[in-house]
Amino acid sequence: MGFSDRLGVALYMMATELKADPAGSLDAARAIGYREVEASLPLAMPPQAFAAKLEKVGLSCPSLHVPLDALLPDQPCLSRPESVIPIAKTLGARNVVVPIPCMEALLKRPDASALLADAKRLGPALVEAAHSMTADDWTRLARRLNEAGAQLGREGIRLGYHNHNLEFAPLPSGEPAIELLISVTDPALVDLEVDVGWVAAAGVDPAGFLTRHGPRVGQVHLKDLKAAAPNTTLRLATAQVGEGVQDWPAIVEAIGQTGARHVYVEQEPPHKVSGLQSAAEAYGFIHPLLAAIVSKV
Question: In 10 A of CB 86, how many CB atoms?
Answer without folding.
Answer: 13
